[in-house]
Amino acid sequence: NHVIAGADEIKVRLQDDTEFDAKILGRDPKTDIAVLKINPGKTKLVAVGFGDSKKLRVGDWVMAIGNPFGLGGTVTVGIVSARGRDINQGPYDDFIQTDASINKGNSGGPLFDLEGNVVGINTAIFSQSGGSVGIGFAVASRLAKPVIAQLKEFGKTRRGWLGVRIQMVTAEIAESFGMKGASGALVAEVSQDGPAKKAGIKPGDIILGFNGQKVETMRRLPRIVAETPIGIDVPVILWRGGKEVKVMARIGELKEEIASEKSTADPNQKRNSNDVVKLDGLGLALSEVTKSLRKQFSIEKAVKGAIVVGAVPDGIASRMGVRIGDVIVEVDQNTITRPSEVVTIIGNVLKQGKKKSVLFTINRQGSIRFIGLKLK
């Protein structure tokens, strides 16, 4: 997609310099795939087929074909260095990493196995110099095939939608929820009238399984949901209240991107210093949510809790993502209305001695997120 994005005219040139005008059937920026169509006329063309990238093993030989630096058709060879790479390019990252030389101009070219099957589409490189350093990436065929089929049929992708905003389950969050290990995807928010809401999924639930597949990490869930057929009922395994709970959710269709996070208030602004409670062990200073603070940090009237008015830059809380202007609405799953309650609950947790961390539920300008903090 990034090769043809914004193009006014697209031409396809074959190895014998024959050129064809091409039109876009559809494109998907999230996976960096575009489908082009040409009319070859009397020219006889032979199509290559897709292989199964799931069968690839680290160490298998592969060949990359492309047009590096505009030189013309070029073949390079290497091995599969890794599978399932997440390079933070999009929500559905599932890349094959290879040391076959991939340079500028290779994008969109095929990555073949030794049987002549296309197992990937070359899309990106990691390089500080701009040239190949032996770390190239290709979109796995298992991800590309359904996207291409949808682009050909509908001109767009049709992805499954659950209607949740999720975050990573850290070791501290796992301990706070009584889990043996950190796994799954923590539900931070649930969309109104979305499939998750109708299924009874709530903020604070941890999704452990979806449609018979384990959700080992947060990044895995969006891919599983996106690949699920629209309109079917699927089982969702949740961790709730210290035990596993099963609900059924009917998958909807993803319509649009979730809005980006709003910018936070300027931490250098003056703050109300009245009734400030300090938590030196966490590096936090908390205050009641006053009218002036609501106005300063754009906090809605319905939000109650303890607002963060100070955070030590190298403190535990700051390192885990707590910011000035955040409103702590729950501590250890207990509702908070004032700073003194935060101190009381943390004190009780320390006295019991069962846990070494505590879970904070934070409202950040309307968005809910969970942060686990280790206690001193």
Strand content: 35-45%
Largest sheet: 7 strands, antiparallel
Give the radius of gyration: 25 Å
Mean pLDDT: 86
Number of helices: 7
Q: What separation lies between the terminal Cα atoms?
A: 50 Å
What this model shows, in words?
The structure is a single chain. This protein has helices at 141-154, 171-176, 195-199, 220-226, 291-297, 316-319, 339-352; strands at 11-13, 19-28, 33-38, 61-66, 74-85, 95-98, 110-112, 118-125, 136-140, 160-161, 164-168, 185-190, 206-210, 213-214, 233-240, 243-250, 252-253, 277-279, 284-288, 306-311, 327-331, 334-335, 357-364, 367-374. The protein is an alpha+beta fold. Strand 13 (206-210) and strand 14 form a beta hairpin. The longest helix is centred in the middle third of the chain and has 14 residues, at 141-154. It is elongated, with a radius of gyration of 25 Å. Mean pLDDT is 86; it is low at 256-274.
Could you give a short description of this structure?
The chain is α+β, with helices and mostly antiparallel strands and 376 residues long. It is 15% helix and 35% strand. Strands 18, 19, 20, 21, 22, 23 and 24 form a 7-stranded antiparallel sheet that branches.
